[in-house]
Amino acid sequence: MKLIQTVKELRSELDGLRKAGKTIGLVPTMGALHAGHASLVKRAVAENDVVVVSDFVNPTQFNDKNDLLKYPRTLEADCALLEACGAAFVFAPSVEEMYPEPDTRQFSYAPLDTVMEGKYRPGHFNGVCQVVSKLFLIVEPTRAYFGEKDFQQLAVIREMVRRYPFPIEIVGCPIVREVDGLALSSRNTRLSAEQREQALQISQTLFASVEYSKTHTVAETRLYVESRIARSEGLRLEYFEIVDGNTLQTVNGWDETEYIVGCITVFCGEVRLIDNIKYRG
Q1: CB atoms within 10 A of CB 201
Q2: Is the pTM of this model over 0.90?
Q3: Which of 92, 108, 127, 253 keeps 20 to 30 A from 3, CA to CA?
């Protein structure tokens, strides 16, 4: 496995492989890797000749500067994990390398990017699209892999690829959870032992709500989740929405569409955690 820090070197390495007819898989990450990322990389390795993993904390997608400063950076440990998973290249550029000049491009995919995360983190998806589009142009992958934990992000990226258009297959991969159900996240490392225990209520509430939804309305299910989180010590709900899994628009009845997902964001102390669960489809 090779660690690369410049666009020029990465392009040089990949050009020869591409000319030789090799398929290239890309796994974009912000580092602080865990078993969830490993599952993406292993799938990419299984489905492509060569796999590139980007390890870059992208400043343009943070609307909270403190969150950017506190985001964990563990490149040495990341490289060890990625080598074990079979990645060929780790692309870990500096901010200056990725943004030699300010990126003024504007990406707008309303209503996909204006609800939920788009509403509470203005500019976030524009920053995501800026960095992911840059990676697509640099790597020119055959396939790119994203986790379904960032459910809205995956929908926005699919739309970006459709509109651009990039000749890339976007592969969504299932959420990876701890044995006790907590969705894996790089931000979990910022939780204290007590907060880690409190955060379990998020996934436990979502799991319970699936069974609850079988005999209750959408409105009742939404209230069920909101009230359980409100009663949970140490947690503060930012939003919970039950949406069409394709359009991300709120649904009011279970028969409105065949694909329905519940998306939630909760603060545990200062740590912002996201999760989702499928109700139908």
Answers
A1: 21
A2: yes
A3: 127
